[in-house]
Amino acid sequence: MAWSRFLRETIGVVLIALFLFLFFFVDFTSLAHIKDIIPKNWMNVNTIFLSIFLEAAPFVLIGVFVSSIIQTFITEEQLKKAIPRNPFLAVVPAALAGLVFPMCECAIVPVVRRLIQKGMPLHIGMVILVSTPILNPIVFASTYYAFRTTPYIAYYRLGLAFVAAVIIGLIVYCLYRNQNVLKDQTVVNPHIHLGFESRWKQILQHAADEFFSTGKFLLIGALIASCFQTFLDRQLLEQVASNHVLSPAVMMGLGYVLSLCSEADAFIAASLNHTFSAQSLLAFLVFGPMLDIKNTLMLLAYFKKRFVASFFVIVIVVVYIVVQCARV
Fold first, then answer.
1. Mean pLDDT in runs of 10 for the chain (328 residues)?
2. End-to-end CA distance of the chain
3. Where in the sequence is the domain holding 84, given as residue range(s)?
4. Contact, 177 vs 58, CB < 8 A?
5. What is the torsion angle, in degrees rounded to the nearest 10, for the CA atoms of residue 238, residue 241, residue 243 and residue 244?
6. Residue 4 located in a structural domain
């Protein structure tokens, strides 16, 4: 385990050093003849890929550091105290928890599991799980920046995510109430007996791990999005995009498969702004952080399969209906 961590950190440092060297010391204008060797389509893929990645990377970096600080210094008990005991009234502040405790969809799953094991109602935990990755200032800033020519997308994203999270929470409450849907696992609080210096060391370690973890999904997402724009048949794309029933569902599926970090997904969506409708882009931006491949695997590790399956259906149906009802 220690060797694996050392190898990962070494590779990360080497890649960062290589990137800085290429950025500051290599004159790419002298390599113009490469354009004659590489096909034009792949040069276009490269251009789109770099523009998406370089715009998104700073927001991902900010997000992982904020998430790491919160994970290290904020306890679950402090979060529980801020939530009312009334099961219906508690849904609203739970949906807004991300404004105070911004976390990505990867970090929030184990936190919610610990909260539920310590006595938080299931439906409140699920509201926090689906809302926190979207309803937080870092994600709003990245979305606003990515859609700076159409900033209303950022406001709609937050509004629709809030409405969807509240509805999801109420449905989970009606279906499950106080049922135990967690797998039996012992939870160990990693922050007990840690000194201040040790906590900051843990922040750096967690931030590095999360950055490289989310960074690879950002790279994959940026590559798929750039290939998507370059090689996909435009006529087929226009047919899908013009179908108001099918288009949001396709973009929800794309958000699930790409599994992007919520601090970066807006830049992928913005690259498709001229092809898909605002409703379809919002379906991508709302559904992706709530459910993707990454957090599905984590949910299956912590929760019973039957609950995960029903939760999956609830989120899909609610997000699709909420987006379709939006007048964008």
1. 61 58 56 58 76 71 70 69 80 88 73 77 92 92 93 96 97 90 61 59 73 68 73 71 87 84 86 88 95 82 91 97 90
2. 49
3. 39-325
4. no
5. -150
6. no
How far apart CA 265 and CA 284 sit, in angstroms, is 9
Distant-in-sequence, close-in-space partners of 89: CB < 8 Å, separation ≥ 6: none
Q: How far is CA 101 from CA 63, 190, 276, 284, in A?
A: 11, 18, 32, 23
The CA-CA-CA angle for residues 209, 215, 216, to 5°, reads 100
Cα 301 to Cα 285: distance, rounded to the nearest angstrom: 25
Note the helical H segments in 118-195: 122-131, 137-146, 152-176
Cβ of 219: how many Cβ atoms within 10 Å?
A: 14
Residue 154 maps to a domain:
yes
Residue type at 141? Answer: A
- The answer as to whether 201 is a domain residue is yes
Q: How many domains does one find in the chain? A: 1
User: Could you give the CA distance from residue 186 to residue 85 in angstroms, rounded to a whole number?
Assistant: 25
Whether residue 247 is contained in a domain is answered as yes
The HSE-up count of residue 196 (CA atoms within 13 Å, CB side) is 0
DSSP state of 136: S
Of 248, 262, 251, 318, nearest to 294 (Cα)? 262
Helices 246-258 and 305-325 pack at an angle, to 10 degrees, of 130
